[in-house]
Amino acid sequence: TPVSIPHPGKVFWVNNSSVLAEGGIGGSNGNPGTYQKPFSTLDYAVGKCKASRGDVIYIMPGHAETLSAADAVDADVAGIRIVGLGRGSLMPTFTYDNSAGEFVIGADNVRIENLRFVPSVTGITHAVNVEATFDHAEIVNCRFETGEAATTDEFLICISVGTTANYGLIQGCYL
User: Fold this and answer.
1) Which of 1, 7, 19, 135 makes a 20 to 30 Å CA pair with 165?
2) Band of the pLDDT at 124, cuts 50, 70, 90?
């Protein structure tokens, strides 16, 4: 018998691209976060998760967000999994338009996978920051790219890990 529910938690969807699910509507944080009525931002979806329940957030192909401030995306709910769908230029893309822009893992047992990080300004300290004291962070199959002006738009550090964060996994990432 096939397993129909491969995780114990809730599933949320994020999509702000122009390609919609069949019968679906555009992403909005006023939506319920379903496949046909997705949220528009990842940070909002994270806020709907419950700690340690095993919630999964799927981000649709072509989704794009701009990170302008510290903690613009803060994966601060323990035990969540964030999965980007799509390949190449259709991978969910997070673009940094301010040197303070930040994608943070701020809880234990958080996994992010198949996300694309691209700077559009210089001086970005780090693309993903695993904050101190948070253990078992996993960053899998993510891409850290240079911006359009490859000689100037780049991350100083792709992944920053706090000194007391333990048992992390970084696997299959392109830097």
Assistant:
1) 7
2) confident
